[in-house]
Design brief:
With 273 residues, the chain is an alpha+beta fold. Strand 7 and strand 8 form a beta hairpin. The model has no long low-confidence stretch (mean pLDDT 96). Bound molecules: magnesium ion (2 copies).
Amino acid sequence: MIHYKNKAEIELMRESSLLVSETLALIAASIKPGMTTLQLDKIAEEFIRDNKATASFKGYHGFPFTCCMSVNDAVVHGFPTTRELVSGDVVSVDVGVFKNGFHGDSAYTFAVGEIADEVMQLMRVTKESLYKGIEKAIIGNRVGDIAHAIQDYTEKQHGYGVVRDLVGHGLGRSLHEEPQVPNFGKRGTGAKLKEGLVIAIEPMINLGTKDVFHDKDGWTIRTADGKPSAHYEHDICIQKGKADILSSFTAIEAAEKANAELCSAYMLQDTVL
Ligand code: MG
Ligand code: MG
């Protein structure tokens, strides 16, 4: 059963989604070589608590942390660890919060220091594919139109692997509601998109093969060929003509840019000395 949201509920959901965005922006400002993903998880945990919300993932089917921290070949559902991040790592951070009875759920992939050009392109194309999907998320279309747009852009146009085992989802009072929102599929198929439907669209795109496996920790999903993966997620509400994006990457991107400039300033200093 699909739960459609009224205007007041959508505003509450926006608050939850934006709190996730602010949490991710804080991570964007903090992440650097030498930090551990466990430290970043603690930062997120405290921030969410300070904002009178709870972390949606902690305890969800037994997941033990606030954030999923998926480094390099980890696609999603990675555990934060005590390993220090090094330049060249890519970290996908997925966070959910529960506030005022509604969940927000968003993800962003961060570059640590300097990363390979091919990985940078993977991140860019994956983020772009999210917006290609959002363009199709309007009244009158179907879930398959979103799915097809993401698959066409990433797989057909760029030759990347689109993960089949995990999908986006409806969002609301529950973290995962109907319908499922895959990143692959046929135009004109699947559930009809109607006013007030809130969904999380989340392309998980691999540099190499689409195939993944479950790590022995029981949670982490990794690429079968060990190549890196990227993941971006927005919460959106279906309306006429143009989706209402409830989460926001604006502050994350600003923090990311400031962090990168600081990073290259340090490197420049090293070179001069
Ligand atoms: Mg998520
Ligand atoms: Mg999600």
